[in-house]
Structures are given as C-alpha cells and as structure tokens.
Design goal:
645 residues, 29-stranded mixed beta sheet, elongated
Length: 645
C-alpha cells in the first residue's frame, strides 16, 4: 500500500514540472517568433546591399553597383526602400559602358517578398534613369539572361498602384531587327506613361511613340489602356488596346494596323518567319495570353490580293502550333514575292524562257519547330497573263517539317483539279509528292481550237521528286502523268493527216473543210523516271485513223520531242511519208507535219514539198514502203481505265 501511494505522489509532482516546461518552451518559441517578426519589420535593408548586388550581377552577368539603400521608417512590413547611385555595366559581349544608370529609385515593397528573392513593388518613383538596350545580329540581348528560365504561366506580375518616372532617357539598338530608337521616358499622374523616340528602321527614318494610362492610386488588376506606333517609310505599325492589369504584358487585347512595302519588313519586328511580298495593309484584333497569341480576326490586302481570316498561335513544349482559317476574295500568286523576288523571276524567265512549272520554294528548314493546320480558299485567282485557273481551296497540315495539303480543289475555266500534295523535309532534300485528278474539261477548251476538235477530258498525276523548288523537284520526278479525251469529234482533215492520208486530206479540204469524224479516244499516258516522261502509250483513235506516238518530254527544261505515226482506216495511194512531230516546250509547243510548220518556211512551200514526197512514194520513186493493212481499233475503254487508275 505504501509503495503505490508513493508512486502516485511522484507522478502527481511531475505534471506541474512538465506543464512549466511546456509553458516555457511555448513562450520561448512565441518570443522568437515575435523577435523574428519585429526583426523582419525593422530589417536594416542597407545590410542586404551586397547580397542584392551579387544577385543582380549573377542575373545580368555584369558588375552591379548600388551607392546606398535606405528605408523610410524603422519598422514596417511594406517600407519604402530608396536606392541611390545604381549602375549596371554592359555585359562583356556588348562592350564598355553602362546598361543602366539610375540616380534614385523609391520603391514600396513587401519585405517578405524581398527576403525570399521575389520583387513585386507596389509604388515606384524613378529619377535620373538612363538605360541602353542592345541586341546583336544573332538575337542576343543584354536585357535577357544567358540561361532563360522555363516559362511559368502562373508567375505573378508586378502589382503597381503608383509609378512616377522623371528625367529618364532610353536608347534601343536591335541589329537583328534593323531598328535603332532613342528618346525620353516619363510617367506621372497627369500625362500617364509615355515613351518617345527617334531613330531608324532598315535604314529609313523612324519615330516610335508609346503611351499608357496614368499609374496613380489605381487598382493594379484593373484594365490598363495603352497605344503605340512605329512610323517609318519601311513600316507603319500601330496598336491600341488594354492590358489585364498595370503593365501586365502577358495578358492584353489590342487592335493592330500594319502597312509596309513588303511583309518581310513587318516580320523584322514580330519575327514570325514571314516572307517577302507586295505592299501590305493589314488590320487585326489580337489577344495575348502568356506565350500564346489569338488572332480573333485579320483582314486586309497584299498587292492585288484581298483576304480575311483568324488564327491561334500557341507555344507548347518548345514548338509553335498554328490553327488558322484564311479566305481570299481575290488572290494573285505574284503577291507572295517582293520586288526583288519578282525581278529575280523575270531575269530567270528571260534567261530560260517561259516555263509551266513554277519556281515556288518548298524548303521547310526554317519552320522545323512549327506545326498546325491552315484552311485556305481563294474565290478568284488573278494572273498577269491569261490562265485557265479560277479558284483554289484546301487544308494545309504542318507537322515537324512535313506539309500535307488535302482536299485540294482548283477550279479551272472548265473543269477542276482535285487531290492532295505533300512536302516532306524531315531528312535530306525536300520531297514533293502529288496525287491529283483532272475532270470536267473539254478538249475544245483545252486545245483552244473548238472548230477542229471536241471531247471530254480527264487527267491523272501521281509523281514525286526532290528539290528546293517545285520546278527542281519535277525535274527529278518519278511516277506517271496521263490525260485522256473521249466521246468527241475531230475535223476530218486533221484525222486524215493523223492517218498520214494525204489523198483524203486534200479531198476533204476541197469538198468540205468543216467535215468531222468521231474521236473515239485520245490517250496520253506518260511514265516518269528522274524527270523524263515517256509514252506508255500515246495513242489516238478517230473514225478515220489510228495513231501511235513515241519520244520523250524532259522536265528539266520542259522540252518536248515526240513523234506521232498514224494509219488510215481506209488507205489511199497518196500517203504522207513523214510522221507528225511535236517539239518546242510545254509553254510553247510546236507541231510539224512532214516539215510543215518549221520556222523560216512558208506553209505553201511546205505543202508543195509534202505533196512532192508523197507523189514520189506513190509512183515508186525513191524508197518504197511496204503496204500496210488497215489498223485495228484501239481498246479505248481499257487504255482509259489504265491511264486514270
């Protein structure tokens, strides 16, 4: 019994001691917390000067000097910090001189944020600022750290409620953009924020003006209006809108107008990889959200072209993703080249002569980090010289340097060209692949001689080749190209000449020049190998004759060297000895019949020569040709099916 009573008494005596220890510990912690809070509130900021200088020096990779740092009161969690005689030297790669010089700056900032490395000032008064911004020709800028932080969409923005800037000047030199501007910078409660500067853009005089609303006792999260202009003969760029918060350049909406002699000049500012063009006048409504752009609407002109559309441009995982819809009420392909480009094309045309296949570049090396979808349509196509093309539409998909164009529809004066195309530049030279069908046209429109021939025309193109331009790729093309005509009619004299029947040709010419015979089929099916097209077959079947062709078309130069030999279904004694020859180029073909059509010889003289050779052959003078049986009719259905498959 005594033992139990003694143990109970001992335990009872421990509780008061433990309670006292707990109270002492809690009080100690509370005292430390109070002392810490008081210490933070009364933190002697000047003692952090070396720390701040070191952090800034590491960030900008240049020496930083701060003459002094003081605070307005001995205790406050949001004191006004005064910095005087601040100098930041230019990085070594820029050269000697100061990046920033500052006489004084008074900043109200939460001390907790300052101690943890954050810097979100609420009120700022800057005096005697001189800043020299510099970016070299490869895009290295003195205001950007060498090692960029990964973008953080949730990173907070400055929460300014008051900003005053006095006696400030800036200079901006961007060798990559070709832009140099210098002038004053000021901000106060009466006139708001204003930046004004003069200089040059692409060697032309330039003036820059930017204005923002006054920052004086305002809600930092309220919409903040701004407008800016860059005026130069090389580019007029104007933007007016509002940021979602004071100086929050990550979130804003704006209406933008751009006018320039070429789209390339606008690209020097926005750096989107655009090309040279005819003069532009563009208007757009845009939104900027973090790294992403939303072009809610864009409309304007480029040369003679008129268009409207919308687009989104997103930045994801180091890549640019585009989704756009563009519709042109009228479009001229020549507008996609500036004066220099058109001059080069004209010089090439003068040197090589006219060509059918364009020199459009298909090299995708500069858009390796761009993906997306662009839906396009042109209601009316414009050309400097007459063309059968009337409209164009399709869907362009870009995926890691591979462009696929699907649902292509090119409306012609008569008929349409449909199918898809692909440019693959993931390795080696760009490879162009075409898979197209042609239908709905007539032979009379295609040939341009409705009194001589008629019929329904269809075509098929399945080719691929490599090169930096469409023309270069087609000069190495492999595949097949076919055109067929069926259910038509042909002038009787033309059919007689095809059958090399001079006697009936003369008879029809004397009796009935307009007489026609059926055109059962015309099949021009070419096999392509390394840019050389050979007939497989080239054949024609009319009511009076059957013809077969041979030779080749060389795409490197677009030269034609074809012969067409025919036989009459009703042979006569007077035959045309030599075959029909098709030469020249795709843009300017030539046809000769036994020499008639050769340059430098009149038709009358040529006709007499043909007649003389035919008479000699008929009389047995000279080499004799073995008699030929009437030709078998072509299997038109089978040949047409094979050509169009």
């Amino acid at each position: 019994m005594m033992t139990n009573e003694t143990g109970t008494a001992e335990r009872s005596s421990r509780w008061p001691r433990a309670h006292r220890v707990g109270l002492w510990a809690g009080g100690s912690v509370g005292a430390v917390a109070v002392v810490a809070v008081v210490g933070i509130g009364a933190f002697p900021v000047d003692s952090a000067r070396s720390f701040i200088e070191g952090r800034l020096s590491s960030a900008v990779h240049a020496p930083v000097h701060i003459g002094s740092i003081t605070r307005d009161s001995w205790f406050s969690f949001t004191p006004t910090i005064a910095l005087r005689d601040v100098r930041i030297a230019q990085p070594d790669w820029v050269g000697p001189g100061d990046f920033v010089r500052l006489s004084s700056a008074e900043v109200r900032v939460p001390v907790f944020a300052l101690l943890t490395g954050g810097f979100r000032p609420e009120r700022v008064h800057i005096d005697g600022l001189k800043v020299a911004l510099m970016r070299n020709a490869v895009g290295r800028a003195n205001w950007e750290p060498d090692k960029k932080r990964a973008p953080d969409a949730s990173r907070s923005q400055p929460k300014l409620s008051d900003l005053i800037i006095t006696n400030a000047k800036f200079s901006f030199r961007d060798d990559k953009r070709g832009l140099t501007i210098a002038g004053p910078l000021q901000g106060d409660a009466r006139s708001g924020l204003r930046i004004s500067g003069d200089g040059s853009f692409l060697g032309k005089p330039a003036h820059f003006e930017a204005r923002g609303g006054a920052i004086a006792d305002i809600d930092p999260k309220a919409p903040y209006p701004f407008d800016l202009t860059l005026t130069s003969p090389a580019l007029h760029l104007a933007a007016k809108g509002a940021m979602e918060g004071v100086l929050n350049t990550r979130l804003f909406k704006a209406i933008i107008n751009a006018q320039a002699p070429t789209l390339k000049n606008l690209d020097r500012v926005i750096e989107a990889g655009l090309f040279g063009s005819q003069p532009i006048d563009l208007n757009a409504t845009v939104r900027h959200d973090g790294r992403d752009w939303y072009i809610d609407s864009i409309a304007g002109s480029m040369g003679r072209s008129r268009f409207a559309g919308r687009a989104t441009v997103l930045k994801r995982d180091g890549r640019t993703k585009i989704d756009a819809t563009i519709r042109a009420s009228q479009f001229d392909f020549d507008d996609l080249a500036d004066a220099e480009g058109l001059g080069d094309a004209a010089a090439l045309k003068a040197r090589l002569g006219p060509r059918i296949v364009p020199t459009t570049r298909i090299n995708l090396s500069k858009i390796g980090k761009t993906d997306g979808v662009v839906r396009f349509s042109a209601d009316r196509l414009l050309f400097k010289t007459p063309s059968v093309f009337r409209s164009l539409s399709g869907v362009l998909t870009l995926d890691n340097r591979r462009v696929t164009i699907t649902d292509v529809t090119a409306r012609l004066l008569q008929g349409a060209l449909t199918g898809d195309a692909q440019i693959d530049h993931r390795s080696g030279a760009p490879k162009l692949s075409l898979n197209l069908r042609f239908s709905g046209a007539t032979l009379e429109t295609t040939v341009g001689k409705p009194n001589d021939v008629s019929g329904s025309v269809r075509g098929r193109i399945i080719v691929s080749g490599s090169g930096d331009t469409v023309r270069e790729a087609m000069s190495h093309a492999t595949g097949r190209v076919a055109m067929v005509a069926t259910a038509g009619a042909v002038k009787a004299t033309v059919a007689d000449v095809l059958g090399q029947d001079l006697g009936r040709a003369i008879e029809h010419q004397l009796r009935d020049k307009q007489a026609k015979v059926p055109l059962r089929c015309l099949v021009a099916n070419f096999r392509a190998s390394n840019g050389i097209l050979t007939p497989n077959p080239l054949a024609i079947d009319t009511g009076a004759s059957v013809g077969h062709g041979g030779g080749q078309i060389v795409m490197n130069g677009e030269t034609i060297a074809l012969t067409l030999r025919g036989s009459s279904k009703n042979p006569s004694a007077l035959k045309i000895v030599e075959p029909i020859r098709i030469g020249g180029t795709l843009s300017s073909p030539s046809i000769t019949v036994a020499g008639i059509g050769n340059a430098g010889e009149s038709k009358a003289k040529g006709a007499l020569r043909v007649l003389g050779r035919s008479l000699k052959s008929a009389l047995g003078i000279g080499p004799r040709e073995a008699p030929t049986a009437a030709p078998a009719a072509l299997n038109c259905a089978g040949l047409v099916e094979a050509a169009l498959k």
